[in-house]
Amino acid sequence: MIRILTFMLLLPATLPHAQASDPGSRIWATGGVTTIEGSAGGGLVPWALLSGYASDEEWGGTLSLSQAKVDDYSLTVQAASLNWNNRVELSVARQTLDLDSLVFVLKDGFGIEQDELRQDVFGLKVRLFGDVLYTPWGQWSAGVQYKRQRDFTVPDTIGARDDSGTDLYLSGSKVFFASLFDRNLLVSGTVRATRANQGGLLGFGGDKNNGYEFMAEAAAGILLNRQWLVGAEYRQKPDNLNFAEENDWWDLFVAWVPDRRLSLTAAWVNLGDIATLTDQQGLYLSLEGSF
Amino acid sequence: MTGMIRPNTLALCLILFMTGWMTGCQTPASHQNDGFYDQLGQRSGIADIVEDLLFLIVDDARINQSFKGVDVQQFHRHLTDQLCELSGGPCEYTGRSMRELHADMAITDTQFNALTENLILAMEKNKVPVGAQNRLLEKLVPLYPDIRNL
Ligand code: HEM
């Protein structure tokens, strides 16, 4: 066997395999999945990981479709991202929040006819230093999310100040090899400066508070093997509107990454009170393809 | 793990082995051996993994150029010894230091990832349990700055 190998290594030319069609060289599942705001991360919280699987000499990207169905709302997100050299991530996401039962509240209480709220999010994330797997201090990235609310009548009526806003965040992620039960553990923390109400779907700033505030976000997940990641996320939220209290978000997730090309995420999400409707919980599903 | 072959140590081991004092030669790591080295299939299992790894490398356009013309026998022996030692087995890596070996290659993250991927695939092919795979990767991660010459 060794002799055959020696012979193969002596061959002058490489065997040009069809690697061009691969989505990139980073190790399975280290692309994370797509958040509801289009940046790579978990479901609700951006991580320091850049989308897809491009490593330092490659580019790649993702396309994804996500839906959260909580008690009185459903949120649909279509998103796309590009990753250049595992250095820069560009993303876009279009969110559509179906107001389901809030439609009647708005009509009877405010005389507004509106059955959905839409928002576009344009994201830029830059890996500052480190590698999530290989460096002792993990991987650190900074990001910007420019958000444009497209149906401002409702947010305007309930006290929001602006129909667009910019979130800034700093994120650190690290995989600890062979931790609990010798499984690899992913830990991620994010600090976000934001004025967004319910992520921006209810506008930016408000009558209770109008300035930027720092919010803490965190995630942890265990890689059962290289195809399954289970974990939890937490996202602190501002509370800018007198109209209704806004709560922190959390979720429990399972992500299945059968292949670099594909990931499927299911989560139980708890979004708390949203625009007077209390305790919004439900199922989140997200399908992502990488190229 | 640095440096040269130490003939004295080897000779000493041989003597101790013959006198039934084998434990005297083992690295401190081997005392905390709790199945991880065994789960890799001990030295012969590791040798199989390294052989499969070499086949994957030959087939991988991201890195096979770098390996053109290497002494495969020696590479196989050295890497097997290194992984055996790192996993707490009774082996000693006698090759050159990681930084010295790889410094001139200007290895990229893409190539490092490619090698890691191939190692994982080779371990999977040899039915190494996930926990033992992770334990070995944990031992290899500290070599990253040396191999990339950072
Ligand atoms: C965890 C990662 C790595 C480990 C543990 C490792 C380990 C080793 C060891 C033990 C040797 C000595 C073998 C001998 O004496 O012949 C070696 C040599 C070599 N390595 Fe690595 N290596 C790693 C990553 C890489 C990568 C990413 C590349 C390049 C793409 C690479 C390319 C080479 C080459 C070409 C040699 C032969 C050098 C020579 O004969 O002068 N290695 N490596």
UniProtKB/TrEMBL annotation, chain A:
Query: Which N-terminal residues, if any, form the signal peptide?
Result: 1-20
Q: Which Pfam families match?
A: DUF3034 (PF11231)
- Alphabetically list the UniProt keywords: Signal
Which InterPro entries does the annotation name? DUF3034 (IPR021393)
Tell me what this protein is called: DUF3034 family protein
Automatic annotation (TrEMBL), chain B:
Annotated residues that bind heme are located at: H78, H102
Q: Which CDD domains match?
A: TrHb1_N
Any one GO MF term held by the record is: heme binding
Signal peptide range equals: 1-23
The protein's name in its UniProt record:
Hemoglobin
Protein keywords: Heme, Iron, Metal-binding, Signal, Transport
Q: Provide the gene name from the record.
A: glbN
